[in-house]
Design brief:
about 325 residues, 13 helices, globular, 2 strands
């Protein structure tokens, strides 16, 4: 990749990066651009995208795998264990499948992979001296357990009338609109929880476990300290107060769990016959894992730009981020 001297400098730092500096893809740009919003809607909801695949999985989980709300009216080991088992299998299949495809089979080689380095092994930084095994332990242990806990409580609340439930037949417009808004809500929640986790006290004791993954892979997305899982998954509490269908809850579950694996693949896109078929990771978040004190949110929400924590991929932004980190941690 060639370009300006600044781009060439960044190209030496990475195996691959998109055109720099990063542009602003936020739907909250002002003045509003109807054409941009229409393209965003088509890209995310009317083509094969991460969100469409997650929604399809959520519908399948609702129809065939998760217990009905009628079953969830009373806590019982059987249906609670079934939810945990389905979630365990789902996280294992998505994270493990992506890891197998990109890092074991190496089906895409290094095309569109951000980092040059392999996953960490034989290093005491990791539990079990292995990055992937470390990430699997935290994702399938604390991650699946707490994801299931939030889901079980919410299903019980829905089943007993403590959380408002809707049907598509009665509220078709809100049903569709809430699906579109849920990832935006998740991005809003994630930014502020993430900023909290980067405060020195919590970072050192909690969030640093996730940030051992400077070189990220699918298993690292949901690999967190139990306290971080707890804070991260409070996003699901929105269903306690906002009218939702179980499909909304399950879509949110998929977005927070398997979705984290998809966004942490370490690759920008899935290539099929050398054509980009599915967007996966973003360089925006890859920069956060490399430089820490920047890009706390995602590209859809403007918070990093508004609050001065945006890294656009330039050497100047790297210098600013390192200075911010020095001020925070001394």
């Amino acid at each position: 990749m060639t370009g300006t001297p600044q781009q060439e400098e960044m190209s030496r730092e990475w195996n691959y990066h998109p055109d720099l500096p990063l542009h602003n893809p936020s739907i909250f740009r002002w003045p509003l651009d109807p054409d941009f919003l229409a393209r965003w809607l088509v890209k995310n909801w009317l083509t094969l995208s991460e969100r469409v695949l997650m929604l399809a999985l959520a519908v399948a989980l609702w129809a065939f795998f998760y217990p009905s709300l009628e079953t969830a009216r009373t806590f019982a080991f059987g249906w609670v264990f079934k939810v945990w088992l389905v979630n365990f299998a789902m996280i294992f299949a998505v994270s493990g499948g992506l890891h197998w495809y990109f890092y074991m089979r190496k089906a895409q080689g290094k095309k569109l992979r951000f980092e040059r380095r392999a996953m960490g092994t034989k290093n005491k930084l990791w539990d079990f001296n292995d990055q992937v095994h470390d990430n699997m332990f935290w994702s399938l242990g604390s991650g699946v357990l707490q994801l299931t806990g939030f889901q079980v409580v919410t299903m019980w609340m829905m089943a007993n009338g403590y959380a408002p439930v809707i049907t598509f037949a009665e509220h078709p417009i809100w049903f569709v609109l809430w699906l579109i808004l849920l990832p935006i809500w998740s991005a809003f929640h994630f930014y502020w929880v993430h900023r909290l986790l980067h405060q020195p006290f919590l970072y050192a004791r909690v969030h640093s476990l996730h940030h051992r993954n400077v070189n990220i892979g699918p298993w690292s997305g949901f690999s967190m300290h139990p306290i971080e899982h707890l804070l991260y998954l409070t996003t699901l509490c929105i269903h306690w107060i906002v009218p939702s269908h179980p499909i909304h809850l399950y879509f949110h579950i998929v977005f927070q769990g398997p979705g984290a694996a998809m966004t942490h693949t370490g690759y920008e896109d899935l290539l099929i016959r050398d054509k980009r078929r599915l967007a996966l990771g973003t360089f925006y978040h890859q920069l956060h894992h490399r430089y820490y004190e920047c890009n706390y949110g995602n590209q859809e929400m403007p918070w990093d730009r508004w609050f001065g924590t945006f890294h656009n991929g330039s050497p100047e932004a790297t210098a600013e981020t390192r200075a911010r980190k020095k001020r925070m941690f001394g």
